[in-house]
Amino acid sequence: MNYLSLLVLVTMSISYLTVHASNNQIKEKLKQITNSVPKGTNFGVMVLNPLTNDTVFAFNHRQSLIPASNTKLFTTGVALALMGPNYQVSTKIFSENVQDKEGKISGNLFIKGFGNSLFTDRNLDEMVQALINAKVTKIEGDIIADDSFFDQNYSRFDWIEDEKTNVHLPPVSALIINRNQIVTTIKRRKRLVNVHSKIADPPAYIAGLLLKKLVSSGIQVTGKSGKGILSGTVYELASASVPLKNILSIVNKQSDNFLAECLFKTVGAVASGKEGSAFTAAQNINKFIAENDIESTGTKIVDGSGLSRYNQITVGSIVSLLEFIYLNLKYYEPFLNTLSIAGVDGTLGGRMGSSSAEFNFRGKTGTLNGASSVSGYLKTKNGDDLIVSMIFEFSKGGINHYRKIQDQIIEILAEYDEISG
């Protein structure tokens, strides 16, 4: 062996040993952090390099824990895989008959919801304008709202037995307007404030509202408003749709619970071809997990948002889900774009700023009383990708204490310098 070859070999060996010494130091730091967690805290941590399939760090990765809003990763991940990012979530208006030369429609007019949780009063105005543009002048029939794409268990308390959460969402229906809330401005202590009240019966309310808008726009309606189910041959007159990816982004970046529960039932409806419900949603998410060899031991999902303390998930299961998405290129980039970026936006916008993790960690946070979680994808110092998942259940210390632990772990991992392959 000549001098030059020997020099190269020695240099490579020193570099290798230096890197691995550095990585051993990082792992030692992670052990020190986990060892310092207050006694009585139940928690799990798992870090995986998905390309090499190396487990960088693991602690209690098979322990079932309350995931809080990390549950949304399953709701959004399965929704994306089943439907694709450009799937259109819609609200539509149909008629039983086509209009005649005078613009008259003989028969009922239907408005049907397909889980479009971003549908607003303005969208409804645009649909009425579409009818005007189509020269519709009269409807000889009723205005009927069809909410049958989902079941009529509008409250989470209707589908989760002995639910204990104190978060009361608006009705989770297939036909939605303005997040199923009415906003009223009142004067309180010399100030104008907005008061939100729930729409108790969304389809009845929307049918009545559509009738009023039609009449005020000059379209005559001979019948009344009500609820029913679309059947037989019908004709689509107007539609308001939003791409699935838009909903996924709000659910993950902003941790929007109402949109998550509507999406949960949409998964159930699309996957089963039947009425969307919490049962069909959970059943088909479990089916998807099983069919794609995603780790499911110790995992039980009862809702789409993670509000329920009956949800039980392991960090190993979350890592396995995120690994499945990572290794499927058609899912990974659209899903990655829905996640909050550390130091930039969403629920991670105020965390890990001015650290190596800023811009480089994209994830989903979770918070309930006594529970905190964070999971996602981290781009390390040398450009490798890591999948990280952490869940903490605690009775001592505030939520910020555990967020600092999570951030510290991610920031340390951001300096990870493993040699790829």
What does this structure look like?
The protein has 421 residues and is of the alpha/beta class. Helix content is 36%, strand content 23%. The protein has 11 helices and 16 strands.
Please give the alpha-carbon distance between the first and last residues.
Answer: 27 Å
Q: Which strands sit side by side, in order, in the main sheet?
A: 2-1-16-15-14-13
**Major pleated sheet:** 6 strands, antiparallel
Number of strands: 16
Estimated helix fraction: 25-40%
Could you tell me the mean pLDDT?
Answer: 92
Number of helices: 11
Alpha-beta classification:
alpha/beta
Quick overview:
The protein has helices spanning 3-35, 72-83, 121-133, 156-159, 202-216, 244-254, 257-272, 278-291, 315-326, 329-336, 399-413; strands spanning 42-49, 54-59, 88-95, 104-106, 109-113, 138-140, 143-146, 181-188, 191-198, 220-221, 225-227, 235-243, 340-341, 361-368, 371-379, 385-393. By secondary structure, it is an alpha/beta fold. Residues 6-21 have low confidence and may be disordered.
List the helices and strands and how they pair.
Blueprint: H1 3-35, E1 42-49, E2 54-59, H2 72-83, E3 88-95, E4 104-106, E5 109-113, H3 121-133, E6 138-140, E7 143-146, H4 156-159, E8 181-188, E9 191-198, H5 202-216, E10 220-221, E11 225-227, E12 235-243, H6 244-254, H7 257-272, H8 278-291, H9 315-326, H10 329-336, E13 340-341, E14 361-368, E15 371-379, E16 385-393, H11 399-413
Parallel strand pairs: 4-6, 5-7, 6-10, 7-11
Antiparallel strand pairs: 1-2, 1-16, 3-5, 3-12, 8-9, 13-14, 14-15, 15-16
Helix pairs in contact: 1-11, 2-6, 2-7, 2-9, 6-7, 7-8
